[in-house]
Specification:
Blueprint lengths: L1 H17 L9 E6 L2 E6 L13 E4 H4 L10 E2 L2 H7 L2 E4 L1 E17 L4 E5 L4 E6 L7 E2 L4 E6 L1 H11 L7 H7 L4 H10 L6 E4 L4 E6 L6 E2 L4 E6 L3 E9 H4 L7 E5 L6 E14 L4 E9 L10 E17 L4 E3 L2 E7 L4 E13 L2 E6 L6 E5 L1 H10 L15 E3 L8
Parallel strand pairs: 2-25
Antiparallel strand pairs: 1-2, 1-3, 4-22, 5-24, 6-15, 6-19, 7-14, 8-10, 8-13, 9-12, 10-11, 12-14, 15-18, 16-17, 16-19, 17-18, 19-23, 20-21, 21-22, 22-23
Amino acid sequence: MRIFLFLLLLFPIFMASAFAADEGGRKILYWHDPMYPKTKFDKPGKSPFMDMDLVPVYDDEVNGGLDAPENAIKIDPVYIQTLGVKTAEVTHYEFGRNIRAFGKIAPSTRLEYAVDVRTRGWVVDLGTDAVGDMVKKGDLLFTYYSPDLMTAQSDFMIGSRIGNAEQRLRLFGMDEKSIAALKKRGRFFEETPFYAPANGTVTMLNVRKGSHVNEGGSIIKLQDFSKLWVNVDVPVRNVQFLTVGTPAKVIVPETGEHYETVIDFIHPVNDPQNRTVMVRLILDNADGALKSDTYVDAVFNADVQSRLAVPAEAVLYGSRGAYIMESLENGYFHPVMVETGITSQGLTEIKSGLSHGQRIVISGQFMLDAESNLKGGMATMGHDHENITETQEPQGHGQH
C-alpha cells in the first residue's frame, strides 16, 4: 500500500517529464500562444490570452537540431518559394555619399563684358537699342563723337612721337577692329565706331541716340549665357567630402531636366548665418534653355570608394540596431547583427557583421523575420519586439 501511494505521488513528475518530448522523440523547449510568441510557458495547457491550447515549440524548429547554426531557423523549400525569398552575395561596390543641396543659376562673371568710354562725348547712333538684343562679336554697338578721341586719332595718323599713339587709342577705348579701320581709312573718324567684344546679350543699356556721356561713362554691358554658374549652398558638415572635380548632378524641379557636371570652385569662407559654404558648378547652355535666377537641386556623388555593401532593402532595424537575414545551407536562415555606414544609390555600407561572399536575403526578409520571431530565433539575439521574454505556467493548467 505504501509503495502504491509513493508511485501515486511521483506520477505528476513522470507526466511533466513526458511533456519534454513528443511521441516522435522531438525535444520540446517550451509552449506558447502563437498570437503572443514572446510569452513562454513550461507546461502545456490553455492560453491565458486566447481560447486555444498552447502550442509546443521544438528544438529543431528553433535551432534546426544539433548540427544547425545557433539561432538559425529552418524553412521548408516550398514555403521559401511562397514567401518570395531571394538571396544575393555580399560584395564590394564603388559608390560614395549622396549629398543634396539647393542652388541657384547665375550668369558667369567671366563672360560679362562692359563697354565704356574714356573721354567726354556724345552717342551719335546705336547699333543696338534695347536690353535683350543679341549681338555677335564684331557687330557695331554705337558710334561716338569725342573731340579728344579725334585728336588722338589725328596724332596717330600724322605719326606723333609724343608717347605711343596707337596705345593712346586703346586707352581711349578703341578696339583692334576700329584701329584697323582707321589705318585703312587714312583719316580720323568724326564718329568713332565701337564694336561688340564678344557674342552676348545686352543686359544693360545706359544711353540713347544723342546722349551726352562723361569721361568713364558706362554705355553697354553684354553677357554671354552659353555657360552658366550654379551657386550651391552646401551644409558645412558635408563640405569636407567635396573637392574640385567631384561629380554633381543639377536638377531643375519645374521641368525635371537634369545636367551632369563637376565642382569648379569651393568658396574658402562659410556663411556663418546659414552654416553653409558656396560651391560653384558650371553648366553648358548653348541652346539657352537654362535661365538665370532659377532655383535648382544639386546632388553630389562624393567620397567614392570601394565599400562592402548590400541592397538597402536587405537591412532590417530593431530595438538593438540593424540586422540582416543570412541565408545558410539546407534551408536555414540566421539573423546577423551589423553595423551600417552610408546609404546611397540603393546600397547600404556594411562596416561590420558580414564579410565578402556571404549570402543574404534581399527579398522576403520581413516574412522570415516574422517567422523567426514566432519560433523564438530572435529572442536570444535581443530582437524581441517587446524587449521582454517571459516564462510562466499557463493559467488554469491545474484543470487539465
